[in-house]
Amino acid sequence: xxxxxxxxxxxxxxxxxxxxxxxxxxxxxxxxxxxxxxxxxxxxxxxxxxxxxxxxxxxxxxxxxxxxxxxxxxxxxxxxxxxxxxxxxxxxxxxxxxxxxxxxxxxxxxxxxxxxxxxxxxxxxxxxxxxxxxxxxxxxxxxxxxxxxxxxxxxxxxxxxxxxxxxxxxxxxxxxxxxxxxxxxxxxxxxxxxxxx
Length: 197
Known about the structure:
Number of helices: 7
Helix content: over 70%
């Protein structure tokens, strides 16, 4: 499937070049952009299927909203292949929803704050995790760390607010998101050669 998708994307770009919509210098950028767009579409479709099967539309949506912005700025482990990425994303959503449903009954505000503090320490120490292919400059490092810290702080405050409003599921989802994000950042110690943001 990957080779077929790559061939299809390449043919779309070649067709764009023939029609004068894309220059030859832009071909590589367009191929990368189309590939990224299709990967995101696959992950979105997987998310929709998981949400429907688990009867967890708003939980999956909330998990994505809590996880993705922090992940973008803090970085962490990525699978080597597209299929590996999609499988990890699917597993994250399935286990995230299942675990959040289970812990919502036992998670109290003190437990949530402890989880967020531990995950915050990991974030401050390791974020952002740079890419083997492209090292992050000092200014980018500082900027990404600042943004990811702000996102984590906002999510913690939102979690406390929702807990006070007796919306325990949202608080549980934020805690799970923080834990999974911390695990992704710590993954650099386990999978040093597979890192990217």
